[in-house]
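Quick question, first post here. What does this chain look like in 3D?
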Amino acid sequence: MSAIRSRPDSLVDLLRDMIAIKTVNARASGEAGTEGELAGYLEAVAGRAGLETRRLPVPGDLDNLLIMHESDAAYPWLLFVSHMDTVAVEGMTVDPFGGEIRDGRIHGRGACDTKATGAAALWSLMDYTESADQPNNLAILFSVDEEVGMTGAMHFVSHDLPRLGWTPTGVVIGEPTDLRPVTAHNGVMRWRIHTEGVSAHSSEPSAGRSAISMMVEVVRAIESRYIAKLEASHPLTGLAQCSINVIRGGTQVNIIPDHCEIDLDRRTVPGEEAGQVLPTVEKVLDELRRTNADLKVRQDEAFIVPALDPETNEAWSSYVRGALDRLGLPSDPVGAKYGTEASSFGQAGIAAVVLGPGSVAQAHTKDEWLEIDQLELASKVYLEIMRTRLPMPG
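> Answer (accepted):
Ran it through. Tokens below.
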């Protein structure tokens, strides 16, 4: 990592510095607090540029970093959000922390998802503070734990935002969207289903009841009676989806297994009621229980990231799209099948649009990369959004 300067020599240097700092999500790496070093670097760069910074503690011994510039107390606030954590680096074919530049691309873990959005937003904010016309108050949230639990954004919305004394008129969530405005995306639900059997020696299987055999029935029923019948859809995000992606069971080859579990992933579409998913699956399980009195099956509570509904961000979307129009870029709203931190803000009634450089197809890959042209264009887009006058609050 290069030495901290009052301002890196270029936007590319800023991104390379960020890539050089390992921030693999702790739940993937087993290393706690990896985002802290990056927060410290960004805090120092922002502070030396005259920007206000705050560390905001998040449960789990983590800190979000909030960077702010207030032009006038009466002006509206805009918030940009970029997460600091990345996915794991095992199997990468490039140096994950090298920031290598080759053929107009910068390589490394986080180059696309999403250190580029954070670098572009911070660079644009530093440019903004040097301009004569500053019609908005601006903030950047560098969040933690997006890749697994989204706890950073959730805690910021529920705990910190009510205490700041201001509420953003609109939020730009930095994710790789090819600089297309994502105004709707699907929600995510993840939960576990367990079957309980009776262990016995494998020389006498009839003395036990196999939890794996029970789970075979459960999987078949869910796939045929629930997943196959999903019909919910949205014009921007497509069909609702559900899949069974992990199974665990048994302890030893000569023991009848007394426990088995599966992990499910469900993608809800905007307008769909996530709270109805588990009760609907429970009806399928009840049908199995009626036909098999020995079946013991239960569901855990679900982890839920709500969908982003475009009806919550129409005015803000128009504002963001106007900035793209002025730069001659595509501005038609699009949807995404994945979930983002935008849903936390949408649930709180705060308009959010997802917008950033690069493609999701480049994220999480063995040679993750970003076109440098996209990085520089993103900075221009973010600065145009920052410089566009919003209606005064009230």
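The radius of gyration is 24 Å.
DSSP finds ten helices and 18 strands in the chain.
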